[in-house]
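Posting for a labmate who doesn't have an account.
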Amino acid sequence: MPYQDLIYEKKDGVAILTFNRPEAMNAGTVQSYAEMGAAVTEAAEDEDVRVLIVTGAGRAFHAGDDVRQIFLGQDQQEREAQWRIRRVKGVITSPLPPLLAFPKPTVAAVNGAAVGEGMEIALCCDIRIASENARFAELFVRRGLEPDFAGFYLLWRIVGLGRAYEIALTGDFVDAAQAERIGLVNKVVAPERLMDEAMAMAERLKKGAPLSQIAIKRGIAKSFSTEWRTMAEYLDSMEALLYQTEDHIEGARSFVERREPQFKGR
């Protein structure tokens, strides 16, 4: 489908979603969030897509909500009433659940500021590669709000409880070097190398068995809220399924034959 506020393209099994409102530092609008959800769903359902990369055009990754449009676009009382109605109708939905539930590997190529909802989007990706120009902040406390669910569900698991409190309660910026030091990002690279590094990571991820990667992502997500005995039973049942796949046989054969496996997701 055509998109207005983002660019969606595919290259050799890699889908690239680029936020494309550079004049507004890619700040999110109702339109852009709807498009993001549609693009993520499109990539999830496309059997040719093995990895999703999320990035931004211009000097920002994503600057959070477009405050003027989303919060100051009309009379406050009317705005709040319309917001509640649209929430109930499902017209306005968070862009995060489709990304967090994405069954295939995801990579955030953070080219610049990732703040507010932009940081939440980056958190929902499996792997984060940052430009030296990247900056992160949970700015919600500076707007009288609280982070979206990634700030609660994922941030402390990634950087630890103390760091998560500090980042969320102060709204302070975390630069790329500090983000790498505390584990918020996997790697920091020069700006001109960012997309090359993201594509190189995507190529590495493409070599993995697709069904195994789906099982790994589901298992990690399930482990967040599952008692260990139940988790062990779940993993036993998942392993029994994977043992029956063609990819498992291919993985075993390629090991014995000392060659690279050719997985097909079957």
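Reply:
Got it, the structure tokens are right above this. Residues 107 and 201 are 8 Å apart (CA to CA).
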